[in-house]
Amino acid sequence: MSQKVRIDGVRHDGASVFLGVDHCDNPCWTRNPERVMVWLCDGWRSRFNQRREQRPRSTPVKDDATGEITDWIEEPLGGLNILPPMSDSQARTSCLWMAGIPSAILASTNRIENTEWFAGLKRKKTTGGRVPGFKSRHRGLGFVCWRNASKTGNALFHQTGRKSGVVVITGMNPTRWVKPGEKAHWGIAIHVRVSQPIRPYTSVHVDWTHKSLAFTNMPLPLPRTGNDEVGLDRGCVHTLASSDGIFMDMPKPSKAELKRLKHLQRKMARQDRANEAKGGRTAKLASKRRQRTLSEFNTLQGRIVRRKNDWIEKTTTRLARENILVALEDLDVKAMTRRPKPRPDPDNPGQYLHNGAKAKAGLDRSILSNDWSRLRKRLQDKMDANGGNLVIVPAAYTSQTCHKCGHVAKENRDSQAAFKCVKCGYRANADVNAAENILSRALNKTGGGTA
Ligand SMILES: [Zn+2]
C-alpha cells in the first residue's frame, strides 16, 4: 500500500553538500537543491547497479570454428572481471562522489534490487520477458529512502499546512570533505501537496522525473471483535481444522480447470518442440500461436491463484479479528513426516519400490506448502498489527496424541478422519483433536497467558 503525493519544490538547509571531486581533484560543493536531488538519484541508481551486476546470467559458449553454441555458462551480469560484492561503506570509499549519500538511501537498494530481480525472473518465466538488467538514467530518475525515526531521523514527514507537508532528508558530509567554515550536516526539504492524512510509513519513493513522492505504508491494524484462542491443524481433507471444530477449505481448481491447464501445457510443449526444430532455442518467443496458448494458460492459472489468495486473505483477516491467540504447527516437520514411504520390492529383496505418485505428490506438496507459508505470513502480519499473538508449536505427534488423557499411540487413529483413544476411549475428528493439541501446546509455551 502506498500514498502518492506531488512534489511542489525542494529547499536546501545547513551545510553545502559535498558532491565529489572533479577531474583536477578539486572538491565540489553545492547549495542548489535540484542538483542535490539529481546527485541522490545517481547515487541510489549506482548502488542499485553495483548490486545488480553480481547477479548471474546464462551466456552461450560458441565453437570457434563453426560458430555453433556448444554450451551455456553462468556469468555475472557485470561480466567475468567484476569486483567482488562491496558493502555500503566500501562503495563510499571506492567512489568518492558517493561518499556523502545518506545511508538510508544506499541501504534501501539492497531489498529493492532483490525484490525487483526476482519479480523480473518470474515475469521472464511466465510471459517470456528478458533477464532484468541495469537501471538507466534515461528511464527516469528516482530513489528510495528508508524512514528512520532516530534522533538524526531521515525521510520524516511534517505537516506544514492544511494541504501541504514536507519530507526532510538529512545527510552529513564526510569528515575530510567538510567545507571550511561550515558544519557537516545538511538537509533537503521536499515540499509536497497532501490531500489526506499521511498514515504511518516505512519508506519514501521519490520519482524525481515525474516530481512525485510515494509513502510506503504499513497496513492498518484490524480492529479485534473477539479475544478467543484457537489452534489450527493442517488437515488432509480440510485445509484447516480449528480447535473449535470448524473446518476451513481453500477453494481448489475444478476438474475441468485442471484438465484445461494440462491440455494447454501439453499444447505449449508441442509448439515449443515444433518452433525449436524450425528456428532454434529462442524461436518460440516469436511464435504468435505459442503466445496465445501461453496467455490462455496464464489467465486460467491466474484465476486459480487469485481465488486461493482471496481465500487466504479473508480467512486470515477473520482469524486475526476474532482471536487474540492463534496457534499453528511448524510447517517443515510435518511436511517431512507426510512423505509417502517407499515399500519393499517383493521381487528384489533389499530394493525399494518408489511410488509412481511420488513425484507428483512432491509437486502438490510444494504448491501446498507455498500456500501454507503465505497463509502463515499473512496471519503473522495481521496478528502483529493488532497486537495478537501467533504461536508456532512443534508438530510432532499432534495427530497421535489424545487430547483428553495425553496418551500417544499410532493406534489412536481409527482412520484418516476419526480419532479414538485406545486408553480412555475419547472420540473426535482427527484434525480437531490435533488442533486442540496444538492450542494446548501453545498455551503451555506462553504459560497460559495470551500476551
Ligand atoms: Zn485418551
Provide structural commentary.
The chain has helices at 33-52, 88-94, 103-127, 255-279, 288-322, 331-337, 358-385, 430-445, and strands at residues 2-14, 17-21, 27-30, 56-62, 69-76, 142-146, 156-159, 164-172, 185-193, 201-207, 212-217, 228-233, 240-242, 247-248, 323-329, 343-344, 352-353, 389-393, 418-420, 427-429. The protein is built from eight helices and 20 strands. The chain has 451 residues and is of the alpha+beta class. Strands 6-10-11-1-9-8-7 form a seven-stranded antiparallel β-sheet. A hairpin with a 7-residue loop joins strand 16 and strand 17. Bound molecules: zinc ion.
Topology, element by element:
Elements: E1 2-14, E2 17-21, E3 27-30, H1 33-52, E4 56-62, E5 69-76, H2 88-94, H3 103-127, E6 142-146, E7 156-159, E8 164-172, E9 185-193, E10 201-207, E11 212-217, E12 228-233, E13 240-242, E14 247-248, H4 255-279, H5 288-322, E15 323-329, H6 331-337, E16 343-344, E17 352-353, H7 358-385, E18 389-393, E19 418-420, E20 427-429, H8 430-445
Helix pairs in contact: 1-3, 4-5, 5-7
The structure holds zinc ion.
The site of zinc ion has 8 residues, from loops.
